[in-house]
Amino acid sequence: MKRTIALLLGLLAVQAVMAKDAATEQYNVSVAREQYNDARSEYESVTDLAEAQAGRVAQEQARLDELRKRQKAARASLDIAKGKLKQREQALDKAWGN
């Protein structure tokens, strides 16, 4: 009888330890799940921001390309106007006898 009681007490002690271990693991899983959810949320947020920024960069690059084309055309017009001005100044100098 004493042996049976000792055996039952031993089993109860093992079950108590197992229950404590299960509760600890349950808590650890809860913490890990919360950390996972936070990390996933941060990843999704940063991914959305990065995609939006990439879109803005593409738009700005297209705008820069357009401005460079306009700059090239403006430079060509400037060079033509400079040449015409030089011709007119030379004609004026000639008219004044210089």
Describe, in plain words, how this protein is organized in 3D.
The chain is mostly helical and 98 residues long. It has one domain. It has one helix and no strands. The model has no long low-confidence stretch (mean pLDDT 89).
Radius of gyration: 42 Å
Number of strands: 0
- Mass-distribution shape: rod-shaped
Strand proportion: under 5%
User: CA-to-CA gap between the ends?
Assistant: 137 Å
Q: How many domains make up the coordinates?
A: 1
Poorly predicted regions: none
Helix count, per DSSP?
Answer: 1
Note the main sheet. Answer: none
**In sequence order, what are the helices and strands, one letter per element?**
H
Which structural class is indicated by helix and strand composition? mainly alpha
Mean pLDDT: 89
| Helix proportion | over 70%
Question: Which keywords apply here?
Answer:
single chain; 98 residues; mainly alpha; 1 helix; 96% helix; rod-shaped
Write the layout of secondary structure elements.
Blueprint: H1 2-95
